[in-house]
Design goal:
- The chain has 252 residues and is of the alpha+beta class.
- The chain has 2 domains: 94 residues; 147 residues, no CATH class.
- Strands 1-2-3-4-5 form a 5-stranded antiparallel beta sheet, covered by helices on one side.
- A hairpin with a 3-residue loop joins strand 1 and strand 2.
- Helix 1 runs parallel beside helix 3.
């Protein structure tokens, strides 16, 4: 690998989620990050960038397969800008998928609690701090997972996107459930309110399910129709969505 190619790969990694070189051989670079545990190994063969994530968990590989063509867990890019897209998506998933979000939460919570006196431990103040920090971490993880775009409409305006829970925050049995990106969807504010109030949900295929409480006139005004659906859905989402659908409101 010549010096220019190595420099281009390292710059792409630095700019898109893999900021330092872990290992280097004459044919490959392995890049890593202090912000997540994932490592990317890049080889250049016939002017193409062959990339694999050497310590990736099955969940992450499964998500990458949806976004990129993979052969034997390897993604082949013909240009450095394509490699940058792969780096960016892989880093976002590494930040958002289960366990990393929990680790981020624990670190952020400890940092925040150090600002308060010891007397707040096990009080309502600590509970509120935990909730605020947790919701911030969850929102960041959801933005990463859904590529900062609404899970239904694809609207890419983070200021109007909300991280919705399928199993409500207060009903989760653990921080793992509260911070699980599969326990919810990233929605525009109007869809978030409807989802939160159990006025819409999504079936196993990700197609919207609309409560009979919403009249045809209101459906039209709200822009709701049977063609709306999640951009993708996994079995991990369905674990939570089936209980959400069961609570969909109906006319009594």
């Amino acid at each position: 690998m010549d010096a220019l190619t190595r420099t281009l790969i390292e710059k792409s990694g630095h700019d898109f989620g893999f900021e330092y070189t872990v290992a280097e051989t004459s044919t490959a670079l392995t890049l890593g990050s202090a912000r997540h545990p994932l490592q990317a190994q890049v080889m250049v063969v016939h002017s193409k960038y062959q990339t694999q994530f050497v310590n990736a968990k099955p969940d992450l590989i499964s998500e990458l397969r949806r976004d990129f063509a993979m052969t034997d867990q390897m993604i082949v890019c013909s240009a450095i800008d394509q490699l940058s897209v792969v780096f960016s998506r892989a880093a976002a998933l590494a930040h958002s998928l289960p366990r990393q979000a929990e680790n981020d939460f624990e670190f952020a919570l400890l940092t925040e609690l150090k600002k308060f006196p010891d007397e707040i431990k096990n009080t309502e103040v600590e509970r509120l701090v935990r909730q605020r920090v947790g919701q911030d971490i969850y929102r960041k993880a959801m933005l990463d997972y859904w590529g900062e775009a609404c899970a239904v409409t694809g609207v890419a305006m983070p200021d109007i996107l909300r991280a919705s829970h399928s199993l409500p925050w207060a009903e989760c049995q653990s921080d793992a459930q509260r911070l699980d990106v599969f326990n919810g969807v990233l929605l525009t504010a109007n869809l978030d309110v409807l989802f939160d109030r159990f006025l819409i949900s999504f079936d196993r295929a990700g197609v919207i399910v609309i409560s009979s409480v919403i009249s045809e006139l209101d459906r039209e005004s709200l822009g709701l129709n049977d063609k709306l659906q999640l951009r993708w859905i996994t079995e991990r989402h369905e674990i939570y969505l089936q209980s959400h659908r069961a609570r969909l409101r109906h006319i009594e």
